[in-house]
Inverse folding.
């Protein structure tokens, strides 16, 4: 789950089971971001789509990393190959995809902080390097967001459309890494999904209350009313 879960949601889409030993060729696919802030949820939605549409070799792990920062260290340390999906500020047109690889990834995230979760994840990568457990290959697929200031909102159409190309890039690299992606005949069982059903994209979008009854800029309990600001 993203956001509020005290621990990271991790789903092993192969046949090895959740309690199996770490494979010497473990591939981790990590989606990070905050689904409550519109396009910030891009990476999480990509991992959700991969989980819904494909199954992989037993050494592949899909992780909804949310905004969990240092709690993700175990997944980075166990990965021999790491694929990261995220919303990234590239100073490009909204919906534009860009790939960054290997040693450039931590340097790029350090130079392009867009939110607190990216600062935390840069620290995760640096800590993994310091401990000597760092992936042999790293690929970051990022999407330029269109909107980040819509609390409770979902992906904007141009960013949602970019998911198709992002998934194609991810699957191409996963095939090259030997992840053996195969289309699912049926969606995964509820208990096996990478995130909980209530946070799934369709349920999240259909369950959003109207603007007349929901605050769009944060938690209204902690906002100063406009009339008090004017005083």
């Amino acid at each position: 789950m993203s956001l509020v879960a005290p621990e990271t949601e991790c789903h092993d889409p192969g046949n090895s089971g959740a309690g199996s030993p770490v494979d010497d060729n473990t591939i981790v696919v990590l989606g990070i971001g905050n689904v409550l802030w519109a396009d910030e949820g891009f990476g999480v939605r990509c991992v959700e789509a991969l989980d819904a549409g494909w199954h992989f070799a037993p050494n592949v792990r899909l992780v909804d990393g949310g905004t969990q920062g240092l709690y993700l260290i175990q997944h980075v340390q166990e990965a021999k190959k790491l694929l990261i999906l995220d919303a990234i500020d590239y100073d490009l047109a909204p919906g534009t995809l860009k790939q960054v690889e290997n040693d450039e990834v931590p340097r790029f995230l350090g130079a392009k902080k867009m939110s607190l979760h990216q600062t935390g994840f840069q620290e995760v990568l640096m800590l993994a390097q310091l401990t000597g457990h760092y992936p042999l290959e790293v690929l970051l697929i990022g999407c330029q967001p269109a909107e980040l200031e819509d609390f409770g909102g979902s992906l904007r159409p141009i960013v949602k459309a970019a998911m198709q190309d992002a998934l194609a890039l991810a699957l191409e690299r996963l095939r090259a890494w030997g992840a053996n992606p195969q289309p699912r005949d049926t969606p995964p069982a509820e208990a096996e999904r990478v995130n909980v059903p209530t946070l799934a994209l369709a349920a999240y979008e259909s369950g959003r209350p109207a603007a007349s009854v929901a605050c769009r800029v944060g938690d209204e309990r902690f906002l100063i009313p406009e009339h008090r600001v004017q005083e």
User: Anything to note?
Assistant: Confidence is low (pLDDT under 50) at residues 1-9, 14-22. Helices lie at 42-53, 73-78, 104-111, 116-131, 157-176, 201-206, 226-230. The domain at 9-230 is CATH 3.40.50.1450 (Rossmann fold). Residues 157-176 form the longest helix (20 residues).
